[in-house]
Amino acid sequence: MARITPTPGQKILYLLLVSFGFCILYVDINTNTFKEIKYGYKSLKISSVYILKNISIDPVIDFLNLTKSKRVLLEENKDLKKALDASYLNNYLISRENSFYKDDNILKYPSLDKENKANYSLAKLKNINPNIFRCCDTHRMYIEFISNKKEQNYLESVVFNKSGIVGQISNDGKYFEVILLTDVSHSIPIKSISDSFFCNAKGSGRANIIICSYNPLIWDEEIILTKTFYTSGLGGIFPKNIEVGNVINILDISPNLREVEIALSANPLDDDIFGVFKN
Question: What is the predicted pLDDT for the residue at 94?
């Protein structure tokens, strides 16, 4: 049968332990005999907490901070890249002294702000097949505006990079399709700096080459190698006096037909950020 009350021996043992505890407490209060033991215990407790914190909590916090720092740095790098690409485009517009802008004072980074007054918008490359660009007749690439421009009509808008014009927007599907100057179905009105020679240069189907075909019996201006051609402004799409490229080859096909091969100033494979100039 279980006991329900302590035995006399248990009571005496309990009283002895309580008395012993009071004695230790009395001695400690009056003599600080156990001071070093208490300090040792506190030191052990602090050291244990510190060690446990270092091997458990701190690594987790450091990892979270590192992840956050990397994310912030990546975002900052993206913003800096956008600003740098925009500065390249602005430098192109300014250094060429061309007529993309009537007033150079409005040149500024095209931000995502809807109130932005810049005349062009930033777009990023989504797709271009370099193998097709180097071998075939159809030369297209696809871009996406960095800010949402879907509400505006950008068909036939001029697309350029930091080196010059690369093409114009031909379709506004999921991504904006750009027909490049080298596409065999594309032509761009060009002229000489003297304004005494004009030609519709067609895409050659070769990378960075367009072809100007003309009758030398009609146009008497001498065309030589390295001669520079510019946009004529005819047709209302491309602004006037934008550098297009330089002559690299001249072919006399017949007495009344001559072909001039022009190497373009801009290569669409050189960049992944483009400016879109809306007339």
Answer: 64
